[in-house]
Amino acid sequence: SRVSQVLGGIRELLPNPDLNAAIIEREVAPARQLKVLVFNLGEALMQPGGASDIALQPRDKITVFDLETNRSKLLEPVIERLRMQASRENRQKVVNITGNVRFPGSYPLTEGMSTRQLIALAGGLNENAYNLSGEITRYSLDEQQRQQIHNIDVQLASANQYTLQEEDR
């Protein structure tokens, strides 16, 4: 079954849903590691069978957000589990967003996540977001295992072109 089949339609949702971003928590065999998928809820419901209408697997958990509840707080157990399953070889699949978004905080990093998807997951830009630019702070290790810090300027109008990595801020 797919997201649209499980959720029905927009009329089935509680009032004031965020149609731009919802998540699926998925356990991956054999160790049941947590993997998070982000999708556009509105597209999933309006275009059944499309790219956003994800095929579900057993034990998947769908979370639909409203536009008022702080989803960063709601996702704290997910973030904690992602941090717990991290290791030296597999950095924690968590990113952080601050500034003029509705719900700043830590969010799960999904495969191929763009800055635009992260902004949508954080509730979108708030009314104080006049300047449509931002910055990604990226931490990485060099060959000698020394930490490197890179700052990447982001123009939010073309934010889809920036793919996020583990622990980006």
Summarize the structure in words.
By secondary structure, this protein is α+β, with helices and mostly antiparallel strands. The chain contains 5 helices and 7 strands; from the N terminus they run H-E-E-H-E-H-H-E-E-H-E-E. It has a 3-stranded antiparallel beta sheet. Strands 4-5 form a two-stranded antiparallel ribbon.
Relevant terms:
single chain, 169 residues, alpha+beta, 3-stranded antiparallel β-sheet, two-stranded antiparallel ribbon
Instruction: Note poorly predicted spans.
Output: none
- Using the alpha-carbon principal axes, give the shape: globular
Helix content: 10-25%
How would you sum up the major sheet? 3 strands, antiparallel
Count of DSSP H/I helices: 5
Structural class: alpha+beta
Number of beta strands: 7
Alpha-carbon distance between the two ends? 35 Å
Fraction in beta strands: 25-35%
